[in-house]
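Retro notes (design track)

What went well: tokenization of the new backbones is finally stable.
What didn't: we kept losing track of which sequence belonged to which structure.
Fix going forward: every design gets posted as structure first, then sequence, in one message. First example under the new rule, 469 residues:
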């Protein structure tokens, strides 16, 4: 089948609604929106703290390897499925499966993804709420000149107060629903065009500050000098899971965004660009945070509170710290916000398409349910902090609801979703269709195809099996 007839088949298969769908206004708009989804709490909040918990350099190296051999090929595959299907992820999968005479059950692959994004958003919004609350904390000047103890106490004060957490979580979720309800392109496109570059500049500034702490070298060697003796198999699983999480893979988000992508845009180049920017932000965040950690004798493995306990110290000490601190947390909120929007989008898109609900109703419905589930994560930080629902299994010992949601999504659902995407595209879709869609020159197609067929699934499967056994 040639490209034009296959496109015609796609159009006829998806009658009606597809005519109303637009496209991104430019390639750059897609790059920014996809980067907006990819760059978020995962880069600035999660990457530094899991790097700290897992011993630094060796973990970072495994993570970079996972981005290269698993993340980038799967991102290309997901964007391609979205663009070819031209619908919400679940329906795009169904259309592509039917077109190649495969079982329509493949659509449940995207179903798992939508479930994962729902679960992630529930706790993502709670952390987004922390960031919102820190905008106020920084702006009020409470941080200036404070010791590590006082700053730690401010943070524990927040976590210990379910009422406050609920307010911030609600606010963050409301912001997310607001943009999704209005349809995503008008607001989102414009916002990311300004915010993403601003975040980059501010991070560079913070790295500059970190260089003055005198512990930059120690931080750089912590991040980049691998010590394999400290690498556990669990750490490899965490690195793999994080590669999916940070690139927004394994749950159909990139399919949803790809469905608005113009046919003449190179999927390979844009995926590469998005992945590089995402990785760049994570590494910059690490270089900004660890010098402060070491300079103040803090614990790199402090866990989820790491950036909320370290960066405020830096802001408290630098000139114009309240200003920079406020700006930083504003941008962190924006980074989290553009990611949260992308987490809600696929579910809302599907409710609209499949259940015929209008956008407002589906946003309100999906958003409120997610908000409700978020309360369980809030309580695990205080009232339920000793409650481990699956504690009877050794692997989940001591994990609260919040920990479980994070663990199950990032380390199990996302890699599983990604594995299935790789198998579907690599082993089931017609090779000719892939060649048409990617139009890669020279050996590049073969390289991508080989990696996606053999390396990616095997790597994910090995890490999985190793951890199960
Ligand atoms: N990639 C986002 C981050 O790093 C989180 C995210 C995951 C967003 C999955 C969308 C889908 O913060």
């Amino acid at each position: 089948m040639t490209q034009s007839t296959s496109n015609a088949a796609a159009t006829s298969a998806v009658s009606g609604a597809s005519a109303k769908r637009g496209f991104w206004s430019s390639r750059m708009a897609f790059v920014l929106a996809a980067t907006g989804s990819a760059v978020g709490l995962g880069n600035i909040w999660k990457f530094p703290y899991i790097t700290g918990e897992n011993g630094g350099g060796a973990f970072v190296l495994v993570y970079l390897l996972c981005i290269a051999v698993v993340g980038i090929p799967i991102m290309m595959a997901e964007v391609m499925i979205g663009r070819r299907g031209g619908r919400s992820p679940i329906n795009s999968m169904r259309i592509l499966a039917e077109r190649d005479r495969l079982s329509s059950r493949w659509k449940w692959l995207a179903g798992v993804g939508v479930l994962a994004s729902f679960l992630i958003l529930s706790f993502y919004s709670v952390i987004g709420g922390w960031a919102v609350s820190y905008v106020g904390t920084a702006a009020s000047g409470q941080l200036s000149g404070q010791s590590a103890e006082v700053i730690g106490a401010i943070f524990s004060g927040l976590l210990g107060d379910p009422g406050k957490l609920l307010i911030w979580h609600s606010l963050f979720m409301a912001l997310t629903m607001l943009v999704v309800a209005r349809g995503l392109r008008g607001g989102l496109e414009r916002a990311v065009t300004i915010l993403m570059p601003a975040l980059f500049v501010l991070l560079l500034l913070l790295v500059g500050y970190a260089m003055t702490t005198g512990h930059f070298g120690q931080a750089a060697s912590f991040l980049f000098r691998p010590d394999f003796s400290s690498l556990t198999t669990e750490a490899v699983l965490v690195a793999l899971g994080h590669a999916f999480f940070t690139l927004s893979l394994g749950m159909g988000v990139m399919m949803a965004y790809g469905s608005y992508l113009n046919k003449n845009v190179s999927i390979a180049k844009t995926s590469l660009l998005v992945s590089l920017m995402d990785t760049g932000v994570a590494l910059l965040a690490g270089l900004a945070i660890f010098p402060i950690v070491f300079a103040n004798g803090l614990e790199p493995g402090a866990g989820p509170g790491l950036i909320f306990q370290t960066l405020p110290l830096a802001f408290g000490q630098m000139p114009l710290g309240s200003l920079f601190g406020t700006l930083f947390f504003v941008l962190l909120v924006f980074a989290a916000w553009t990611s949260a929007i992308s987490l809600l989008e696929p579910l809302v898109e599907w409710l609209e398409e499949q259940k015929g609900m209008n956008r407002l109703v589906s946003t309100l419905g999906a958003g409120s349910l997610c908000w409700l589930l978020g309360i369980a994560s809030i309580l695990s930080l205080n009232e339920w902090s000793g409650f481990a629902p699956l504690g009877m299994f050794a692997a989940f010992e001591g994990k609260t609801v919040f920990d479980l949601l994070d663990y199950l999504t990032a380390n199990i659902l996302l890699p599983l979703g990604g594995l299935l995407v790789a198998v579907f595209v690599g082993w089931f879709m017609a090779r000719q269709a892939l060649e048409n869609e990617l139009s890669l020159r020279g050996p590049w197609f073969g390289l991508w195809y080989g990696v996606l067929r053999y390396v990616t699934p095997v790597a994910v499967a090995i890490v999985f099996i190793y951890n199960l056994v």
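Added context from the reviewer: Residues 1-19 have pLDDT under 50 and may be disordered.
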